[in-house]
Structure to design on (126 residues):
């Protein structure tokens, strides 16, 4: 259940980032809004899996930079995870398109803020 809630939160965050940042685009399926929601859910699933499995390894390997920058390097890691999600999702005809690192940085910042705000409403597993 928590995975589905995180998936919905990530889908909303990615959609908002695509709306607000010029260099981020969601490719449309051309079949209507229902299919576009399925494409968005697929992108959010890839993003959730990347954040669950790859991001902790990258954070562990970049621990000296995280300590040196007092945690600000996390923004760079988040942008790289968003770019990795875009790269993985473009293996299909539908996906997330990011034009550069700047767009990925601002998109990752928006996604982090939306995840923080919407995640406050999700109860813990306790």
């Amino acid at each position: 259940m928590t995975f589905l809630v995180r998936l919905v939160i990530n889908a909303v965050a990615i959609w908002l980032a695509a709306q607000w940042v010029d260099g981020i685009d969601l490719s449309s399926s051309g079949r209507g809004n229902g299919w576009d929601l399925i494409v968005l859910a697929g992108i959010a699933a890839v993003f959730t899996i990347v954040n669950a499995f790859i991001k902790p390894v990258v954070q562990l390997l970049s621990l000296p930079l995280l300590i040196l920058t007092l945690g600000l390097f996390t923004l760079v890691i988040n942008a790289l995870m968003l770019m990795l999600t875009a790269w993985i999702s473009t293996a299909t005809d539908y996906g997330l398109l990011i034009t550069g690192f700047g767009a990925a940085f601002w998109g990752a910042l928006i996604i982090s803020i939306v995840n923080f705000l919407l995640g406050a409403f999700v109860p813990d597993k306790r």
